[in-house]
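stage 2 :: seqdesign
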């Protein structure tokens, strides 16, 4: 009689443990951080990260081109004149100055290290 009760308790305990494990993993498959319900948010984050990567790549190319133009073995005279005029403020009276605020551009914000949420 004691062995029968023990066997029933072991079976009930095993069933309870197994059902708790199934419920735990079932919940996380659907409602967990990376579950089925979180998929649209994950897709949105992936799209934002890809857009950010594209902007950073473009900015990197822009900076790499400017660096190539400023290297001593192939110094571009126009680049040198542009940089000197901008740094020293030496402009002729008939020069037309077009100023672009680079801080307003998207890649400036990304380069500053904004986080994607």
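stage 2 :: out
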């Amino acid at each position: 009689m004691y062995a029968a009760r023990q066997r029933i308790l072991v079976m009930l305990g095993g069933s309870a443990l197994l059902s708790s494990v199934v419920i735990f993993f079932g919940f996380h498959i659907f409602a967990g951080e990376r579950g089925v319900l979180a998929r649209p948010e994950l897709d949105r984050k992936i799209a934002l990260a890809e857009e950010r990567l594209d902007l950073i790549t473009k900015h990197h190319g822009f900076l790499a081109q400017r660096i190539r133009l400023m290297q001593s073995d192939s110094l571009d005279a126009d680049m040198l004149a542009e940089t000197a005029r901008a740094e020293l403020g030496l402009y002729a009276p008939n020069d037309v100055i077009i100023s672009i605020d680079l801080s307003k551009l998207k890649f400036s914000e990304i380069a500053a290290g904004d986080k994607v949420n």
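stage 3 :: structure notes
- The two ends are 61 Å apart (CA to CA).
- Residues 1-37 form one domain.
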